[in-house]
Amino acid sequence: MRNTAPAPPAGGTDRANSVHDLVETDRELALLRELIQAASNGPEVEPLAAAAARMITDATGADVCFVHVLDDSDQSLTLAGATPPFDRLVGRVQLPLGSGISGWVASHREPVVITEHKESDPRYVPIDALHDSHFTSMVSVPMETDPGGLVGELTVHTVDRREFTPGDVELLSVIGRLIAGALHQARLHRQLVGRERAHENFVEQVIEAQEIERRRLAGDIHDGISQRLITLSYRLDAAARAVADNPGEASIQLTAARELVELTLQEARAAIGGLRPPVLDDLGLAGGLASLARSIPQLCLQVDLTETRLPEHIEIALYRIAQECLQNVVKHAYATTARLAFTVHDDTAQLEIADDGVGFDMLERPPGIDETGGYGLLSMSERAELVGGQLNIRSRPGSGTAVTATIPLPPTRDD
Asked: How open is the CA angle 409-410-411, to the nearest 5 degrees?
């Protein structure tokens, strides 16, 4: 007797297909949730690309995934994410736009599916570092976003021959569009950070160049003008002792000449100190500010200083701000006491100078506009902004004035 297998119930095939479609849909939704979570973790290109490569490999069952991102010149693609062991090559593989299958996909913004024999494709260019010759089948899709346009491309490979379906291509295209927006924002963030670093480096170089020139001028004044004036003073002394005829008039003229020499020497020394405060080299900012406070006998100054060395360009900026601010207090505030404080908290340096002077109305006389009747703080604000900080002024008529310079500190090499 022959056994006959029972026929499947009516509609069984349809239900099986529905279950399969439901499983596939859940898998894709889970993948999209993971990608959204990765995109929300931070505005960094490489971590996002790495997470995308790992998730795409798991979702498609491919052996490896490469994510190439358009570089800032818009002329080439850089490997930004890959599944192990190729993740060690991130940032080290570059493809000219239009070169190879990945470059063609990015430039033409069309997907490419190759089941086998990719070496026979005229667009194929071997990439030895990625061992792409070891893989048989592949799918490459562009990553685009609106309004950012092209962001890059992503490719999956399999060692064994595989027939990628239109559904596989559509899934990869959807993933590409999804992560393209996040990658575009990450690229913009990277460009912004690069420009900020370039600006900071430029500011440091400008200040360093200024200080080098000031050192040179200070040395020229010290070695040239000052020495000649000292020699002239010695000669005038000798001439005064040697005068025989009309000693009274000669003595008067020589005394006037010596007074002129002394005045010129004082001006030369002041110019040297103005060009480059040597006290910063000897004592640092705290010692320099303490010396500056002692040089102003017109004020009873309370000093609170933190003994911390800062980058040279920041020390110079804060010293100049303190110097100019105290001069303005003496000239305009009619103050009897003032407080000079310098503190460092975590990654911020702060300089504060407060006086008990007449103050001023900041609405009627904004700082920096009225240079004669007010404090004239415009140049101090510019110094603070030049090193990435800001200047804050608080003042009211009859209540004195407080000037605070807050400067963010660059991270140390260890950080």
From this structure: 115
- Give the model confidence (pLDDT) of 297-318 as tens digits: 888 999 999 999 998 889 988 9
Backbone angles phi, psi at 141, to 5 degrees: -130, 150
> C-alpha 218: how far from its chain's center?
32
- What is d(CA 273, CA 266) in angstroms, rounded to the nearest whole number? 11
**Residue whose entry in the numeric block shows the structure tokens 């020394």:** 269
Q: Phi-psi region for residue 117, left (φ > 0), alpha (ψ -120 to 50) or beta?
A: left
Helices then strands (H, E): number in the chain?
9, 11
Chain centroid, CA 30 distance in Å:
37
Q: Which of 363, 351, 365, 366 is nearest to 402 (CA)?
A: 351
Start-to-end C-alpha separation, the chain: 83
Stated pTM of the model = 0.43
- In the block, tokens 């995934």 appear at 65
CA nearest neighbour of 113 among 64, 163, 68: 163
Residue 304, burial from CB neighbour count under 10 angstroms (0-12, 13-18, 19+)? exposed
Four-CA torsion 38, 39, 42, 45, nearest 10 degrees:
100
Distances (CA, A) of 386 to 128, 167, 196: 48, 55, 13
Strand 337-345 and strand 348-355: the pairing is antiparallel
